[in-house]
Amino acid sequence: MRLTFKEIQDKISKMIPSGVDFEIDLEAASIAIITKNPEAFSNSLIGEMAKSVKRRIIIRPNDSILMDTKKARDVISEIIPSEALVLDVWFDPAIGECTIECKDPALGVGKKGVHLKELRDEIGWQVNIIRASRMDSRTASDVRRFRLENAKERKKALRRFGLNIYRPKRPGESWVRLTALGSYGEVGRAMHLITTNESRVIIDCGAKPGSEKESMPYFSAPELLPPEKIDAVIITHAHLDHIGMLPVLFKYGYRGPVYCTPPTRDLMVLLQLDFIKVSQSEGRKPAYTLEDVQEMMLHVVDVNWDQTTDIAPDIKMTLYNAGHILGSSSIHMHIGEGLHNVVLSGDIKYEKSWLYDAANVRFPRVETLVMESTYGGPKSFQPSRLEATKELQDMIKRVLSKGGKIFCPVFAVGRSQELMIAIDQLFKSGECQPVTVWLDGMIQEATAIHSLHPDYLNQELRQSVLRDDDTNPFSSSWFRTVESRDQRESILLNPGSCIVLATSGMMSGGPIIDYFKHWAGDRLNTLCFVGYQAEGTLGRRLRDGFKDVPISDGGRGTDMVRVECDLVIIDGMSGHSDRRQLMEYVNQMNPKPKFIVLHHSDAKIGSQLRQGLRETYRIRTVNPKNLETLRLA
Q1: In sequence order, what are the residues at sequence separation of 6 or more whose Cβ sits closer than 8 angstroms to the Cβ of residue 213?
Q2: Which neighbouring-strand residues pair with 372?
Q3: If you average pLDDT over residues 403-409, what whole number do you get?
Q4: Cβ contact 596:622 at 8 Å
Q5: Where along the chain do the CATH 3.60.15.10 domains lie?
Q6: 30 has which bridge partners?
């Protein structure tokens, strides 16, 4: 039975030791105990309270005991030994937390946590001491600064989210529906709507690359209106086809929470701001402004993998690793008092990669699975990661040996870092003379965000990134960032061999276009595709064999480019599972779903995978069209 907030307050109040100053408030779904005596709350007591009310309990320091941030920095420098090498300190007043980044966090914490305890007693803030990244991220720093400057507004928003979750129960029959608002029968503009008799929750809000007419999800669908009545948004991962139009929702008046993992939060801001910049450079009016992105950021609630949280009066959510890109998640939604359980896979890779572990397949309960089907066709088979890596490395050796250049259109997130690791491995092996590998676009910034969130990488890479030595593949000397247009021009005119990784991944804009225009006519060069190319994009036309392609010149005209260079397609580097992996993902899912809904592929491929799943596993499977609604319970 669902407890009201008043009932939760009463239960917790009886468990708090006498004489302890406290007040009980809401921080989104979490129950926040705000106190001048944080030391009075042991882990065992917090655990007992959480078990009693079946809610996450967090202890927050009262504002009155928080030391001024400038003074707190001075105290930190006095208490933390200089050998720990503190590189950065940042504060989040909305939740009373201070994070200290050290080269040696163990020295920072001190024996048996002595420095940590002394700091908490002295400065009042809750203190986290973490290992500093070797790479600085401008985006992450901007996010921290924004949160600091808007702490009061964020605190009010978190409380408002909580009050909405704990609102009185609505009468009537319980039911669950899924409405397809984008990415059904297509790749791009992903958006799903879960509706119950009590709540409305959106999952993803993406753009469609290469299509101006169909660039947005179906915002005008009556189920979405008015936006102010939507309870929550959940983001699976930070590719543009899943987050590219989220600020538009805030432009239209949505003011509820956006739940995602911390790396998804940082990457989302990076890509949305670049989306605005690219639109302007191509002579198009952006769909939203910087102010819309900032409004969105005020409403982001960080959720880590495996952390269950209430997001609506009748919905609990848990995020799990999806194996696709940094922080990418599959969403488990527990609806009602055991009424229905839905898993939305997000984009998945059911194979361990150079960067991430394979997608999670174990869930508490599953009745409905909403699954991507990008490579679900009967002939959509990809080589393994090791096979793809060998194919890539052999191609690099071949092209460089004859003095050519290699240019790869890449997504800044995921594929870029995979390629960097494969290239780094090749150059360190001594099998190939190293050349400069230019990173153009947002790749270096996205790589820095990977370094900031090592817990979301697989164990081997996490250890390499955390070590302060040459084992970190992202720090190798052959990787260099293109800092300006002038520098790009000099690279374009340089006759020597090199490798260029440049955005955008589907060649729908970005710096890769400059390299393509200058180098496509030389037979010594190689254009290498390593990611999915959606219908309507330049990348797709080139993959389909077009030899003469038009290139828009920022609204000033169109140039025709003749393709004489070699074209290599390496499918095994994709962040999506192929047909075999998708089938095995369903086979290994525990427990098995009773109903599967397919999206994120064209209608033909979705139909082919639907037939395969039905015949193999005897599970009812559908691939609906956009704007269709399915009753799940």
Answers
A1: none
A2: 599
A3: 96
A4: yes
A5: 149-378+576-626
A6: 27
Task: Classify domain 389-573 by CATH architecture.
Answer: 3-Layer(aba) Sandwich (3.40)
Instruction: Give pLDDT tens digits for 445-478.
Output: 999 999 999 999 999 999 888 876 678 899 899 9
Helices (H), 220-287: 240-243, 246-251, 262-281
The segment(s) of the chain belonging to CATH 3.30.300.230 are 5-64
Tell me the three state secondary structure of residue 94: coil
Residues 269-292: pLDDT tens digits?
999 999 998 888 778 899 999 999
For residue 274, report the phi and psi dihedrals to the nearest 5 degrees.
Answer: -70, -35
| CATH superfamily membership of 67-132 | K homology (KH) domain (3.30.300.20)
Query: 526: which 2 tokens?
Result: 């190689």
Closest CA to 592 of 616, 625, 623, 628: 616
Distances (CA, A) of 35 to 22, 29, 88, 114, 508: 4, 19, 27, 22, 53
Give the predicted TM-score (pTM) of the model. Answer: 0.92
pLDDT of res. 472: 86
The average confidence (pLDDT) of the chain is: 93
| 211 vs 187: CA distance, rounded Å | 11
CATH 3.30.300.230 fits 5-64, yes or no: yes
Q: What three-state secondary structure class fits 26?
A: strand
Has residue 384 got a pLDDT over 90?
no
pLDDT of residue 197: 96
Q: What does the alpha-carbon distance between residue 4 and residue 198 come to, in Å, rounded to a whole number?
A: 15
pLDDT digits 0-9 by tens, 301-349 = 999 999 999 999 999 999 999 999 999 999 999 999 999 999 999 999 9
Mean pLDDT, to the nearest integer, of 429-442?
Answer: 94
Superfamily for domain range 149-378+576-626: Ribonuclease Z/Hydroxyacylglutathione hydrolase-like (3.60.15.10)
Q: What is the pLDDT of residue 556?
A: 57
Residue range 404-419: mean pLDDT, rounded: 92
The 97-102 sheet, strands edge to edge = 86-92, 97-102, 126-131
Q: Please work out, in degrees rounded to the nearest 5, the angle formed at the alpha carbon of residue 294 by the alpha carbons of 288 and 296.
A: 80
CA 261 – CA 453 distance, rounded (Å): 10
Q: DSSP E strands: which ranges in 218-372?
A: 232-234, 258-260, 300-302, 309-312, 315-321, 329-335, 340-344, 368-372
Residues in the chain: 633
Closest Cα to residue 446, out of 355, 573, 569? 355
**CATH 3.40.50.10890 domain extents, the chain:** 389-573
